[in-house]
Design brief:
The chain has strands spanning about 5, 10, 20-25, 35-40, 45-50, 60, 70-75, 80-85, 90-100, 115. It starts with a strand and ends with a strand. Strands 2-10-9-4-5-6 form a six-stranded mixed β-sheet, with no helix packed on it. Strands 1-3-8-7 form a four-stranded antiparallel β-sheet, with no helix packed on it. It has about 120 residues and is mostly beta strands. Helices cover about 0% and strands about 45% of the residues.
C-alpha cells in the first residue's frame, strides 16, 4: 500500500495562497498519474487536479482552473498543488492519490491535509 504524506494545509484568508505537498516513502510518484481531490463536510468528493506521469500534462476542475497549479519534483519525489486566490468554497480536506489515467478513479491516498479559507 502506498504511504502518502500530505502536508501544507492551514488557515488562510480569502484571496490568500497555500502550497500543498505530497510525498511517499515507499513509492515513486513519477511513475504514476497523481491527482488531488478534496472532501468538504456534507459534500461529495471533488477531483481538483491531476498530473500525468507520461508527459506531465495537467488537468484541473473548472472550479479551480486559473487559480491552482499542479507540479512535480522528481528529485524529491514530491507533487505540489499551488493554490492561489483562495475562496471560502475551497475549504476542505485535500488528499493526493494515485489516479490512473487522470480518470477520476483513485486507488490509494494519504491522510489528507485540512485547508480552511476564512476571514
Amino acid at each position: 500500500q502506498v504511504q502518502f504524506v500530505d502536508s501544507g494545509g492551514g488557515l488562510v484568508q480569502p484571496g490568500g495562497s497555500l502550497r500543498l505537498s505530497c510525498t511517499a516513502s515507499n513509492f515513486i510518484l513519477d511513475y504514476h498519474d497523481i491527482g488531488w481531490f478534496r472532501q468538504a463536510p456534507g459534500k461529495e468528493r471533488e477531483g481538483v487536479s491531476c498530473i500525468r506521469h507520461s508527459d506531465g500534462s495537467a488537468y484541473y476542475a473548472d472550479s479551480v482552473k486559473g487559480r491552482f497549479t499542479i507540479s512535480r519534483d522528481d528529485a524529491t519525489n514530491t507533487v505540489y498543488l499551488q493554490m492561489n486566490s483562495l475562496k471560502s468554497e475551497d475549504t476542505a480536506v485535500y488528499y493526493c492519490a494515485t489516479e490512473s489515467g487522470c480518470s477520476g478513479h483513485y486507488d490509494d491516498w494519504g491522510q489528507g491535509t485540512q485547508v480552511t479559507v476564512s476571514s
